[in-house]
Design a protein that fits this description.
Layout: E1 11-19, H1 21-30, H2 57-68, E2 75-84, E3 92-105, E4 112-122, E5 127-137, E6 162-166, H3 172-176, H4 189-194, H5 204-219, E7 227-234, E8 244-252, E9 255-262, E10 268-277, E11 291-294, H6 300-311, E12 315-319, H7 334-345, E13 349-353, H8 360-374, E14 379-381, H9 397-425, E15 428-433, H10 436-440, H11 446-466, E16 471-479, H12 491-494, H13 503-509, E17 520-524, E18 527-531, H14 550-555, H15 557-561, H16 573-583, H17 600-610, E19 621-628, E20 633-640, E21 643-648, E22 656-661, H18 662-669, H19 675-680, E23 685-688, H20 690-693, H21 695-699
Parallel strand pairs: 11-12, 11-14, 12-13, 14-15, 15-16, 16-17, 19-22
Antiparallel strand pairs: 1-3, 2-5, 2-7, 3-4, 4-5, 6-8, 7-10, 8-9, 9-10, 17-18, 19-20, 20-21, 22-23
Helix pairs in contact: 6-7, 8-9, 9-11
Bound molecules: 1,4-dihydronicotinamide adenine dinucleotide (NAI).
The site of 1,4-dihydronicotinamide adenine dinucleotide has 32 residues, from helix 6 and strand 16.
């Protein structure tokens, strides 16, 4: 019977499992703990070994097997990854839910891989860990599916930093199986013989637990709560009683690679081990399910962003053309490849791309690389950059053009195809890279400054277009030592301006937690601040009808140009509203106008009577009102063919929607709150065609 490929996406769970401290201790004894690490075995101040998390997989795997119809005769637990979000409390109820995420075909001879990813929550409401389990099915390959993406773990070519020797007891599986894996292969001699073994074999996950203890003992002694990620591949069976060695290489800050070998034969029984550890910061920013594109990630700032994103779980497309600092030359694969290698060596996931951001095809290919390697794109950091500095008269067209092509057009070329994916999925983060040269000016950089400020304009509008789809667009102005700046920055600063000091801001702005869109930030040397464009209140010169003389403006110059009371606007409608408000006269009752309303519905009863049909020639609009609070509700007035129809409820296609609280609405309708003031103070919010809302004053005799 063939694999059921439509099992991809099939839900697993929720599977619940109650446990007490005795279950945690039983697991600890099953993986060799004892008096030497009593904190795992004694209910007083008990700490739970983080790999206890895999005991939830015993219930996940049968569901995975049933859903995928895998051939039971040939299955093995292939790989296991645990990402720890919080320490596991000593008792409670675990609830695990997930889905089958992929089924890969390694070929007829090699078999198939079925992968499930699950999240486990504790009964205290906290997410404890994410587990990703791979079942390897020897007999199900060759169905014509895609092969799994290659994951490389490159062990250092040196002796391990730690070698921990242990000898599981002959009877170890008898204890370990009580934690949930009661498969006969580990207890029944006849069954084991039928399966081709001399005797029952160790559970791979039991050896995995020994390794987890060894990693903690070597890297974070006495602090299992600092374990962050444990991943590995099971490669060879092991008989109980055979001594093992856990080999551990420290590869970076909070990162290690590991293997378990059979100490008698030197065969690797667990391979490609990755262990990450360190404080679990409160509100940690993670990118576990996210796919990020970082352009120009072969060096400087982009390299640091890519490494940091991968370290926090993102799958990263490392784009870099590998050209010269001025954008000349054919490019090279080396810079991107090196970063990908470094990410993989630390157990992360990354793929290289060598396209230029400066062409439409390049941008499309970069996004295609993300889709082909990882299936989606959640994050784009537009970072690639070059310099061609010259004073303005020496700025020949080619030097102007290439800088605009890489910086400004580059962001367009990559972000646009990515935006299409983000819009469909309803999530996205786009980061643009501007520069102090653009924000404030710098001699000899007209091309660069223009491109960098063009990006700010791109952000201002893209933030509005992305708003509905949770696509946030922000801009960073870094200062850091890199190939671009090494000969520009004063030598004293070179060491202080580490690109790593910019990364925290970039990471936050592309994370799920990012609370803002449309903002610009400076970051350098560990100092972060916001840059904004603000507009002063200005002066009204004349009455808005007669054209004032230049001298009249000069007479009010100080007031017109003062930034006292300056504001920051979020879109073009807001300053227009303020200009209109500046001309608004206090409301005066006009003859025949309606007022004196006590309740909102009375306003809508009065609207048809206040309609001025003569003013509505050729007008076809629908004004939707959403009035909140006591006495509020939804009404709309539809004006067409010089008639006005008022209905309660919501219109399907309003021209514009006016949103107000009931009290403010009554004040406005009774002439106590000028409409423009209501608008600029935020009491009146207008969505849709704001300019058409101006017609209300013309079409109705209302005191607004
Ligand atoms: P960098 O030169 O170390 O990195 C830029 C990377 O972009 C290089 O690896 C380069 O090969 C790549 N690249 C250039 N053209 C490309 C293209 N067409 N397609 C794909 N990749 C391409 O420089 P750094 O400093 O890390 O610059 C990163 C970004 O930060 C740039 O946009 C730069 O303008 C901006 N920036 C940097 C400042 C700093 O102080 N380092 C200051 C202000 C802005």
């Amino acid at each position: 019977m063939a694999l059921k490929l439509d099992a991809i996406g099939k839900k697993i769970g929720p599977i619940t499992k109650e446990y007490t401290w005795k279950d945690a201790v039983l697991y600890a004894l099953g993986v060799g703990a004892g008096f030497a690490d009593l904190e795992y075995c004694y209910e007083k101040d008990l700490k739970v070994i983080p790999s206890f998390g895999i005991t939830t997989m015993y219930d996940v795997i049968p569901q995975l097997v049933a859903a995928s119809n895998v051939n039971l005769a040939g299955i093995l637990h292939g790989e296991q990854e645990l990402i720890f979000h919080r320490p596991i409390p000593p008792e409670g109820k675990l609830s695990t839910e997930g889905k089958i995420t992929n089924i890969y075909d390694k070929g007829k001879e090699k078999g198939a891989l079925i992968i499930a990813k699950c999240e486990t929550f504790h009964s205290n409401g906290q997410k404890l860990f994410t587990s990703i389990g791979t079942v390897f099915s020897r007999l199900d390959g060759g169905f014509g599916g895609e092969d799994a993406p290659k994951k490389e773990v490159n062990f250092p070519q040196r002796d391990p930093d730690f070698v921990i020797e242990s000898t599981p007891f002959e009877d170890q599986p008898l204890i370990f199986r009580l934690s949930g894996d009661t498969f006969q292969l580990h207890v029944d001699a006849e069954f084991a013989k039928m399966a081709g073994f001399e005797k029952p074999i160790m559970h791979g996950l039991c050896t995995h637990g020994f390794a987890c203890r060894s990693l903690i003992q070597s890297l974070i002694p006495g602090e299992p709560e600092k374990a962050r990620r444990l991943a590995c591949r099971f490669t060879k069976p092991l008989y109980p009683g055979v001594p093992i060695k856990t080999l551990i290489w420290k590869t970076g800050d909070g990162q290690a690679l590991w293997q378990v070998v059979n100490a008698e034969t030197d065969e690797v029984v667990i391979d490609r081990g990755v262990f990450e550890y360190g404080e679990i910061p409160k509100d940690e920013i993670r990118f576990d399910d996210r796919v990020a594109i970082v352009t120009g990630a072969g060096s400087g700032l982009g390299r640091v962003y890519a490494l940091e994103l991968a370290k926090r779980g993102a799958k990263v497309v490392v784009n870099d053309l590998g050209g010269a600092r001025d954008g000349s030359g054919k490019g090279a694969k080396g810079p991107a490849d090196k970063v990908v290698k470094k990410i993989k060596a630390a157990g992360g996931q990354a793929v290289a791309n060598y396209d230029s951001v400066a062409t439409i095809e390049g941008g499309e290919n970069i996004v295609k690389t993300a889709l082909e390697a990882f299936g989606t794109v959640d994050i784009v950091i537009n970072n690639a950059g070059i310099l061609r500095d010259k004073s303005f008269l020496k700025m020949e067209p080619e030097n102007w053009q290439i800088v605009l092509d890489v910086h400004l057009n580059g962001a367009y070329n990559v972000s646009r195809p990515a935006f299409a994916v983000m819009k469909d999925k309803g999530y996205g983060r786009i980061l643009l890279t501007t520069s102090a040269a653009g924000l404030y000016g710098n001699f000899g950089q007209t091309n660069y400054a223009a491109a960098k400020m063009g990006l700010v304009g791109l952000m201002n509008t893209l933030k509005l277009e992305g708003q509905k789809y949770d696509i946030k667009v922000n801009t960073i102005a870094p200062v850091a030592t890199s190939r671009l700046t090494e000969d520009i920055l004063p030598p004293d600063f070179v060491d202080k301006l580490k690109p790593e000091l910019v990364a925290p801001l970039a990471l936050y702005l592309v994370s799920e937690k990012c609370p803002v869109s449309g903002n610009i930030y400076n970051a350098g040397m560990g100092c972060y601040n916001r840059v904004a464009m603000v507009t002063g209140p200005g002066a009204v010169v004349g009455d808005g009808k007669e054209i004032p003389a230049a001298e009249q403006l000069v007479a009010q110059w100080e007031k017109a140009t003062s930034l006292k009371g300056a504001k920051e606007y979020q879109n073009l409608n807001e300053p227009i509203g303020d200009i209109l408000a500046a001309f608004a006269q206090p409301a005066e009752a006009t003859e025949g106008s309606v007022s004196g309303f006590d309740d909102v519905s009375a306003v809508f009863d009065a609207i048809p009577g206040a309609f001025i049909a003569d003013a509505a020639a050729g007008v076809d609009v629908v004004f939707q009102y959403n009035i909140s609070g006591e006495g509020g509700g939804d009404w709309y007035s539809a004006i067409k063919d010089q008639t006005c129809r008022v209905e309660s409820g919501t219109h399907e296609k309003p021209t514009c929607t006016l949103k107000m609280a009931a009290g403010d609405f009554l004040d406005m309708m009774n002439g106590k709150l000028p409409a423009m003031q209501a608008y600029t103070s935020g009491k009146l919010r207008i969505e849709g065609d704001i300019m058409k809302s101006q017609l209300i004053e013309k079409l109705f005799r209302l005191q607004t």
